Amino acid sequence: xxxxxxSEYRGYRTAGIRLRDEMLPQLGQLYGSxxxxxxxxxxxxxxxxxxxxxxxGLLPRDVGAAxxxxxxxxxxxxxxxxxxxxxxxxxxxEHYLIRKLGEDIGGRFHIARSSGDLSSVAINTLQREKLLAxxxxxxxxxRTLIDLSRLHTDTILPGYSFGQHAQPMTLAHLWLSWAAxxxxxxxxxxxxxxxxxxxxxxxxxxxxxNFLVNRTRTAELLGFDAVHENCADAILELNADDSLEVPSxxxxxxxxxxxxxxxxxxxxxxxxxxxxxxxRYCNTSSIMMQKKNVIGPAExxxxxxxxxxxxxxxxxxxxxxxxxxxxxxxxxxxxLWRVADNCVRDLGWFCDLLPALIIRKEHMREQAWLHxxxxxxxxxxxxxxxxxxxxxAHQIVGILVRLCEERGLTPADVTPALLDEASMLYHEQPASxxxxxxxxxxxxxxxxxxxxxRGGPAPAESMRQADLFLQRTLDDExxxxxxxxxxxESARTLEAAIDAIIA
Amino acid sequence: xxxxxxSEYRGYRTAGIRLRDEMLPQLGQLYGSxxxxxxxxxxxxxxxxxxxxxxxGLLPRDVGAAxxxxxxxxxxxxxxxxxxxxxxxxxxxEHYLIRKLGEDIGGRFHIARSSGDLSSVAINTLQREKLLAxxxxxxxxxRTLIDLSRLHTDTILPGYSFGQHAQPMTLAHLWLSWAAxxxxxxxxxxxxxxxxxxxxxxxxxxxxxNFLVNRTRTAELLGFDAVHENCADAILELNADDSLEVPSxxxxxxxxxxxxxxxxxxxxxxxxxxxxxxxRYCNTSSIMMQKKNVIGPAExxxxxxxxxxxxxxxxxxxxxxxxxxxxxxxxxxxxLWRVADNCVRDLGWFCDLLPALIIRKEHMREQAWLHxxxxxxxxxxxxxxxxxxxxxAHQIVGILVRLCEERGLTPADVTPALLDEASMLYHEQPASxxxxxxxxxxxxxxxxxxxxxRGGPAPAESMRQADLFLQRTLDDExxxxxxxxxxxESARTLEAAIDAIIA
Amino acid sequence: xxxxxxSEYRGYRTAGIRLRDEMLPQLGQLYGSxxxxxxxxxxxxxxxxxxxxxxxGLLPRDVGAAxxxxxxxxxxxxxxxxxxxxxxxxxxxEHYLIRKLGEDIGGRFHIARSSGDLSSVAINTLQREKLLAxxxxxxxxxRTLIDLSRLHTDTILPGYSFGQHAQPMTLAHLWLSWAAxxxxxxxxxxxxxxxxxxxxxxxxxxxxxNFLVNRTRTAELLGFDAVHENCADAILELNADDSLEVPSxxxxxxxxxxxxxxxxxxxxxxxxxxxxxxxRYCNTSSIMMQKKNVIGPAExxxxxxxxxxxxxxxxxxxxxxxxxxxxxxxxxxxxLWRVADNCVRDLGWFCDLLPALIIRKEHMREQAWLHxxxxxxxxxxxxxxxxxxxxxAHQIVGILVRLCEERGLTPADVTPALLDEASMLYHEQPASxxxxxxxxxxxxxxxxxxxxxRGGPAPAESMRQADLFLQRTLDDExxxxxxxxxxxESARTLEAAIDAIIA
Amino acid sequence: xxxxxxSEYRGYRTAGIRLRDEMLPQLGQLYGSxxxxxxxxxxxxxxxxxxxxxxxGLLPRDVGAAxxxxxxxxxxxxxxxxxxxxxxxxxxxEHYLIRKLGEDIGGRFHIARSSGDLSSVAINTLQREKLLAxxxxxxxxxRTLIDLSRLHTDTILPGYSFGQHAQPMTLAHLWLSWAAxxxxxxxxxxxxxxxxxxxxxxxxxxxxxNFLVNRTRTAELLGFDAVHENCADAILELNADDSLEVPSxxxxxxxxxxxxxxxxxxxxxxxxxxxxxxxRYCNTSSIMMQKKNVIGPAExxxxxxxxxxxxxxxxxxxxxxxxxxxxxxxxxxxxLWRVADNCVRDLGWFCDLLPALIIRKEHMREQAWLHxxxxxxxxxxxxxxxxxxxxxAHQIVGILVRLCEERGLTPADVTPALLDEASMLYHEQPASxxxxxxxxxxxxxxxxxxxxxRGGPAPAESMRQADLFLQRTLDDExxxxxxxxxxxESARTLEAAIDAIIA
Lengths: 503, 503, 503, 503
Fold this sequence. Notes:
The structure is a homotetramer. In chain A, α8 packs antiparallel against α11. Chain A is built from 20 helices and 8 strands. Chain A has about 500 residues and is mostly helical. Chain A has helices spanning about 25-35, 40-55, 60-75, 80-85, 90-100, 105, 115-150, 170-195, 215-220, 230-235, 240-265, 295-315, 330-355, 360-370, 375-385, 390-405, 415-425, 435-440, 445-450, 460-500, and strands spanning about 155-160, 165-170, 200, 225, 275, 280-285, 295, 360. In chain A, the strands form 4 sheets. Chain A has a two-stranded antiparallel ribbon with strand order 1-2. A two-stranded parallel ribbon of chain A has the order 3-4. Chain A has a two-stranded antiparallel ribbon with strand order 5-8. In chain A, β1 (about 155-160) and β2 form a beta hairpin. Chains in contact: A-B, A-C, A-D, B-C, B-D, C-D. At the A-D interface, β2, β7, α12, α15 and α16 of A face β2, β7, α12, α15 and α16 of D.
């Protein structure tokens, strides 16, 4: 008799049934280790599927009740541990039930589903959890940036382009731009969330079953917002776009986080020294005792590289004809879980690190004009006060900068005579700007104050943006709270449905 | 005098102004060639910026009118050709105007903007055009799939997983799953569209200008749906998330297109021979005259590889501190334009190719049960007719398949006795299913017909999905039509505003 | 007193020395977990460095002896376990020694090196081990292929290009081509081995030390073949080319392995059915009991995707100015160790799997002419027997194939009349080939037998290649044996030097 | 009659032969544009193949002579232009010959080869040219670096790790490390060269032909160093490892070039200001006239991103079963040619740019101790003069640095008393170092001078490395010269063989 002894049940893939030989143990171990993270989601699906089967009359109520009671017993022993012990990965529920209740009971509950919807439900559920955690982290970081910005509307520093001093900006202006970027990340991640929180349950392996399950009900019990309308589309083995969108939105977000990590490291160098980073994010060297290495943000940068690699691995692993790459995707998925967890970690680090930065405000401000970052407004003064064409004014000040560079002079050394010299060189007419006009034009504080245009760095405009971005963050916090509410509600519904059956 | 002769104006970066030496000609050529695709967008910005300057009193009306008249003259000569000839890339408008009107006029219109918003406006506009074309292509392909699906609800073929026959499905079911996937692509691309169609105009280089431009007006004249609320965020040099989202959504879409290209190639092999591909997508060999190589879909697959490379290049090129990587991004952008154009090409090819496929319906259907794809329903019959647990039934049929394999039998050869033999081997009880039950259970037509569940392949259910997906496509076509309308309206507004000034 | 109690020594980065606060525990845990794999290599370096210090008089002999005795004691307790327990990662030796011997002894042995050469030595050593294992796996697989090829010089199957039947080949011919490719992989991996087996020891952190160590001696004791001639070049933080070459050569190798995995999966489909894969590499389905999913080769394909992702992550993580990305690289390294181990696993699987494949020789041979794969030689016969130009002959047979396709005829149905018909259509002259000539030209056995050219698939030529490739494999096995010998010798030298000091 | 009029010959793939319909014109255009770069190599193969056919008696001498004369005539008209005009891509030779000589002559020379060896020969030849140019560029840059290093053995600057000041080094030391890295690049690129300069000619499409060509002779005439011993291995459609190795070695090289580009940009910032970059590599801004943007090195960085994308595209494009991806690879190849050309461009730029950098030596040296980069040697002095354990000395100086930081003191302010204070805090014992000892220990000049160890930055040791690295460069220049000699010789042999036939 090929039927196994129930108490030692090892699953449906044993020698002598369909195949003659046992599987390489190594392959089984791989499967076990990579499905471990999915076990809680599989457990929930096991419960919801059983409830639905009973409600639809596809499973006798007493059989369903026995199964559900046993699954509750499993919970009390620890879902992941017990399931990992009985083996079977996605099918660990069946292993457990057959061992406890025998094949005649435990062998009945897998009807009308397959490994296909099991893995799809589990992966979607895990993606859901990860994306939700990222959404929460995003909102927290947006809040942090907005709050900090209000404190730094007059913290002036040079802007940079091509690595060179561009025009002055403020820390508020810069951090508000980060918040604006994170608002788009919220949209992207939330968009992806909406697309993955759709139920594949009951799609079995691409065509569903002739045991006519109620897919709407299972979806409701598992907290999915919708049901995949086509069973082939539902199964990740077929349409993999979601499996690529999730790593892609995280990778895009990580690109920004890494950039900002790079900024903080740069600001903390001896050369820039705009900030001091809290010691807890730093280590030192075993021989260079002076070192204060800013490693927290460096971790963020490394994690970003892994996020990129994850997307590439997923893209490559999933290449092939429809339904061909299945095992392959796990090589990308295991990385994805790690990348997503790192992302939540790093969003949290920014929330802790940014407010703890010691800002060297005086030094920043000095730098904001010392290398001619305010030169644009000197040209502007020639336009507004002397009615020069912009390009003429621009060229004159360009010559002025070159003359100063050649003579070792700084912006503080510019005199009307020097400006006239440059102007004469350009078009044989003096510039005729007063010393006061020159000084005012080159002052970084005046520079910032004058930029009251929409989107500009003038303090009041920064406060307007802070208010606006806060409102948007509040709206997005509401979105997350609503999701949390719906998920909690579906969990209660599931347990109540179980109670009703086993009562 | 360092001022150039207007008629030979070569731009603001010449030897003797800020820098002593001329730039390497090679660097100028690179800049010229990579900004060429941006010239039409730059031209529109030149016009809108001038209109806004005049309206806001930042440029005398007569100066503005002279400039706008000249820009219209330029149009009649050919925007790209003339601008490429005068040189200057993003600043070709200034080159042209100074050459034609002298620096005293032509040198005035660059006020209050910079290369930063010029390139950002141009890149956003190009991305807008590319994404719009992709959206149109997506809708056409969805229509094509939905229309074809209605014709193939009874075209049965094996489903595949792991490359092996899974359960039967229909071509309608499969193609509807493609349409479902493309609907998500529409959402993704449209999401990206919404994020990039926001105006950076007036943000200059991260902080705007103290010449207080009306950014809302410029945005309106250029057809942007919104204004970047923070000038640092507006400039692509800073926040690059959009520059990554655009290639990422195209890459994700391309992954599906490549998979379907792979499917078509596989279906056309001697081994599968499910379809004949129209000759126009095929070549042959210079020595193997029998060859009919399906190269159209292979192009799609190759283009997908470039789409992946494009995202990776962009991600890597843009790495670095805020504002550092600027020149670098062009290496990814030039590939992006090509990838986007290929994507539109390939969506079009599918619309032409799919209806022209010759479907070998009989052969497909025969394959759909010949290798046991319907075996699941034989186990199902043991459950429904003999009340066996699913797992018991599954194992019995598994043994049956092995026995048949060992004895060279096919599904058509299964008898009640053979099934009993398998059942006895499993649990020492016969299966006791009649020949008619066995035959019915294994019939692929019956298999499909029975799957009437939501999302299943039963013909009526496929028709329901087709109706639903068509409605969604119609909604999305409406979205694109509205966009087209808004863009046309803004173009008219711009020309009318010019008319008003030059009148 | 800030000096720590030796017995609880926690390392040099504690609050109150250089930095005021303790480091985030999370950062310390990351460091501990990612240096764990390096501990055996660090241990060897600790021993070799101490020996060299004593020999050079940089450490008193009694101090050195005490340290070396303690390091041997550590070994008896388990290098990885004890070091992981005392913490400190690369500096776990110092932790352990200070705890056991006090700072006055244990604090002396880190002189003249730094974390820089510690990590570089450890990473190079790990890379060395991984690459050596890959080299061994490559040689075993080459042997396997060559041995198998000798058995399959008359196992004829269709060649494929564009997925379509090209010309016939033999399994020997194909597998010999795999062996030829693996020979290049050996060269590449061996080239990389040569470049990484160079000693950074003593380079400290880019400039070495003013305690004048004997770098040649340390290199010898650690089994390195050479010494980095420039200390800046020696440190991986600076020149990262080796850190990219190692993942790149593994990724390139993996591309081939994945391709061959894909081949085996394809050959095992119902459509091709060229081989049966041993059951131990297969699983089945929880509802589709007929499934025999070939998952072993699918694992290879997935691992290849991770190999690609690993290279991309490394490339991206290491981007930045010289010396900037250090922490970042660990995100790629942890993946690299896994990828390399998978590679060894997968080379081993091929050695086990290929000889166990059941080859369906008859079916393969039938396919090798059924879809016109031998058509080329029919054109060839027109050239050699009728003196037609190749192109003329090629077009005539092209027409013939089309006619047969239109009329449902196979190659077996070709008659002289049919060929004449095609010939007449082409150039109004008959082909005038006899039935025997036609039959002979289309026979796959004759096709193979005639290809005796260098590199061709004729059996004797395959045997020549097998002999040649075996000789090359023997040469490469000698290379690996020599490496093994040198490494064993250096390990003995190190222990003997320790014996001499502690004696 | 389906035979075409010779004078308008359009190739073998026309409607009515094997296939009923013409191919999409778009597909033909793609093929034409992507084979254009291959035409010179194809032309050489056409000549060599014809010579070999005649020599082996596979083509009548008079036919061969007519063909060779015509191919020489083609040369006088311009190989690329004429071939592009007659169309046919790889088969443009046949098009041209049939048009000129009729099918009876021109239709004879394609015997015993196929598109497979045509494309493989052409791609290998192009790769050969590109790799050779890279090898030359590498040697030039190594020379440049070695020569410059000799001038900068006493140009002291801080080393960096984690972006923070590490220990001082010299520019000579750093640039010699670059040269050391490029020497490995030479090995890698040369290794790849050796593997691709192997002849596929005569392998046709994986199995060669039954017209028994002399593959050795063709290889000799085309300058290949060896013949692929297995015809399946010879054809790039099958074994793609070479197609991945070539982009991988260029990508690895580009990683270094980009890093050094980043260094130069950083050194040129206002914050570092170690160098002034020649103006010809810089542009300025249209509104920020002070800007001197270092764009040449930024191009290098961008090109590196494309090199990475190229490898990823190639890896992905070539995925699939043996012989499946063929068309696909062109998407990676077109990028490869561009990447390789950029690489040669950028190696050249470094050779021009580096000697033209203005080195701000005084400033560099001041930075080399101002932020405690020499602190290690103060700890070293405590070890050598006070016999403290290294770790004890390290911690004391760590405390010293912290105290100075807290009190706003610099290394120049360190007194024996201050050091004693730190020492007392650590272990309640004074350090007792004299002011002179402290000053000497912290001096960057003394720091460098003391590092005479092998690989160290002491001037004499740098000169030793320069001599050694120059010798290695000379050896590698010899390798390139030998290759050039062999290629020139084979070209002469080919022309002489043609002369002999047409004489």
